[in-house]
Amino acid sequence: MPKKTEAKIKGLVHLNGKIMPLHKAMIPVMDHGFLYGDSVYDTFRTFSGYPLQLSAHIDRLFHSAKKLQLKSPATKKEIMAQIFRTLSAYWKRFKKEDVYIRVILSRGYGNIGFDLNLCTHPTLIVIIKEIPTFPKKQYEKGISVAIVPTLRNNPKSLDPNIKSGNYLNNLLAYLDAKKQNTQDAVMQNYKGEITEATTSNIFIVKKGTLYTPSLESGLLKGLIRTLLIDIAHKNHLKLIEKKITKQELLHADECFLCGSIKCILPVTSCNHKKIGSGKPGPITQKLMRLFPTAVMECIREEYCLDS
Amino acid sequence: MPKKTEAKIKGLVHLNGKIMPLHKAMIPVMDHGFLYGDSVYDTFRTFSGYPLQLSAHIDRLFHSAKKLQLKSPATKKEIMAQIFRTLSAYWKRFKKEDVYIRVILSRGYGNIGFDLNLCTHPTLIVIIKEIPTFPKKQYEKGISVAIVPTLRNNPKSLDPNIKSGNYLNNLLAYLDAKKQNTQDAVMQNYKGEITEATTSNIFIVKKGTLYTPSLESGLLKGLIRTLLIDIAHKNHLKLIEKKITKQELLHADECFLCGSIKCILPVTSCNHKKIGSGKPGPITQKLMRLFPTAVMECIREEYCLDS
């Protein structure tokens, strides 16, 4: 439980077969998720009450888990059922339709050491809480980023496609960005290629063409990134996945970040230098307009709703 | 608490001002130490009841914390006092003089996000438990290692000198070693230089000279590594810190690992190829003989004991 002077975070948790208030959810100090960050997770939100890309997020959770030889105690179907049970309890209690969802699969309780047999019961946790609010102004005016000294993890050290409880690389990059008085960090790989922001993929626009770093640069294959590539193709916007250099980002006409929680967030300065006109550009704005319809199409398809 | 079918790990924990059994120590799911591995730690053992290099370990804990802008809720003196209180309770309860100690400083409870103001109360945890037993045979015959595909974290991504709760890089290397049917992994950096094993520093011997990877290769400046360099100098053993290649390791006459818990552990094969004669070599054995006396000298000095 949080200390008495700490604000209680509102939300619900599904843990060890029970649904409980978020601030009461506890795990053992000897959970390897705490000792080593030995856990995987995935995070997404609901739109009109429906978790977007739910099936793909759970698939990715299992993909991350497999890379760590971490076995889920529940099947995909069971995890989905846990999410919907917790959602239902959340709606009854908080009367809010749209929520933030985080599913964590931790190695579980066990003695110090790497032997996988030390931990016999991986722990599955579903967290449901309010969606963090990004100020409206950020979407209208765009945010500032810095290309930071902290390099994105080398996929041969810790693959960015394992969404894990090892998140210090991203935190260090964020702290770099704050030191430079900017709002988020853009990380390069050790070869100097642009990879992603601390919790988002990145796109740029140059002379009417969209570009996003190719997966070979070492970045998370974000599900909103995939959705945006699809939206671009369907709307005849030219899009190229390729290695992107620092200079290409600095001299882009437009730039934006995307992720499951923030959706599409324009970037209007990099390293304290305006990007394009210094305002969200026309292609960024077009994608922001197309996005809600595409989201609802995804949801209609995933949940077999009538259109 | 562990699930009913899980073995309870014996030990004591100092947490939130209380000493409690290790298996009952719990932290919130919303502790950033669990969500992001956003914690630092240091680990050491007692000899004849005295924590070896205690002051240096707490200094290193503070060094790791500073790199993450993580403020300790307790001073060095207070942390040491907590350790001795917990040690005293452990001795009363378990009647064992020599123990394993782990001090963890976690970011604490807070909502999802990187803003350091989200977590107002970092959590300090002292764990005291039995020393893990390394089979005597391993010290007599040596262990096998493999130079694995997983590369050590680049210091520009996450400095190995931050001892943190982000330990998946090491776990992945260990899993590589297991796949190759060896007992531990040796990790290279992205330039191919040898760095360290998963929880130890590494030394080799060639033609009577000791070599250990220089810190520039990107590795933890281990306190036993420092002690061994000191022992070598005092005993007129030639020792060089330098970049070490895979070929130099494979063609070494001797090799050993060292760490605060395992002390000096001979390595007698690498990549399924004998190192030297395939038995712990004479310089390794000499250091193993000198080690207990050096440890007791350190302790006499640190605790102002009469010799």
Quaternary organisation of the protein chains: homodimer
End-to-end distance of chain A: 45 Å
Global shape of chain A? globular
Number of helices of chain A: 8
Q: What percent of residues of chain A are in strands?
A: 25-35%
Strand segment tally of chain A: 16
What gyration radius of chain A follows from the Cα positions, in whole Å?
A: 20 Å
How many domains in all of chain A?
2
Largest chain-chain contact?
Answer: A-B, 68 and 68 residues
CATH superfamily of the largest domain in chain A: D-amino Acid Aminotransferase, subunit A, domain 2
Task: Provide the structure class of chain A.
Answer: alpha+beta
CATH C-level label of the largest domain in chain A: Alpha Beta
Q: Could you name the ranges of chain A where pLDDT drops below 50 across 5 or more consecutive residues? A: none
Q: Report the mean per-residue pLDDT of chain A as an integer.
A: 96
